[in-house]
Design goal:
The complex is a heterodimer of chains A (116) and B (108). With 116 residues, chain A is mainly β. Chain A contains no helices and eleven strands. Classes of the chains: A mainly beta (116), B mainly beta (108).
């Protein structure tokens, strides 16, 4: 089945130790998103790639970076995790084109990040 | 400001009773609205979108531009409807803004 895969499902890191979360998709969608979701809160968009173009949200901390080496993979790098970065991180994909800029987003299962 | 509001964080309904999950938005343009659902231990997934005008799992939602609402309704609740429900709005680009969600619990 075509899907969105996130690895690892659970990640534990130490305060200040860089961590990378990965997302891959077999849907061949051109847009990939990273969301942060804290307990009992809405998913909050951090950034997204529209094809190769990176789009950062204005309030996303500089501590968060992303890479998309090809259509299928996207990475979330947290350079110096703080205790406040503990959350569920969701990856999503969508097929978007000029004239149809909104469409269903397909979500991965998420990676739960714990910062010690 | 563009905003999506779900006024109820928690909603409990008896099995067989009608369900209504409220969603209000603020946006001056033509919105595209979605309902996403997250069942226990499952990923977030699309339930329905207003442009489809379809009924999924017995749920419907009508866009009311006058009241700027997109409430989710089901006439007879089932136990398997217990989940977290998010209203989401597209503001004319490829991004979604989510409401804070409503946790629906169906009481047997």
């Amino acid at each position: 089945d075509a899907m969105v895969i996130q690895n690892p499902r659970y990640q534990v890191t130490q305060f200040g130790k860089p961590v990378t979360l990965s997302c891959s998709q077999t849907l061949n969608h051109n847009v990939m998103y990273w969301y942060q979701q804290k307990s009992s809160q809405a998913p909050k968009l951090l950034f997204h790639y529209y094809d190769k173009d990176f789009n950062n949200e204005a309030d996303t901390p500089d501590n968060f970076q992303s890479r998309r080496p090809n259509t299928s993979f996207c990475f979330l790098d947290i350079r110096s995790p703080g205790l406040g970065d503990a959350a569920m991180y969701l990856c999503a994909t969508s097929r978007v084109w000029t004239g149809r800029r909104s469409n269903e987003q397909f979500f991965g299962p998420g990676t739960r990040l714990t910062v010690l | 400001a563009q905003r999506v509001t779900q006024p109820e964080k928690l909603l409990s309904v008896f099995k067989g009773a009608p369900v209504e999950l409220k969603c209000n938005y603020s946006y001056s343009g033509s919105p595209e609205l979605f309902w996403y659902v997250q069942y226990s231990r499952q990923r977030l997934q699309l339930l329905l979108r207003h442009i489809s005008r379809e009924s999924i799992k017995g749920f419907t939602a009508d866009l009311n531009k006058g009241e700027t609402s997109f409430h989710l309704k089901k006439p007879f609740a089932q136990e398997e409807d217990s989940a977290m429900y998010y209203c989401a709005l597209n503001f004319g680009n490829e991004k979604l803004t989510f409401g804070t969600g409503t946790r629906l619990t169906i009481i047997p």
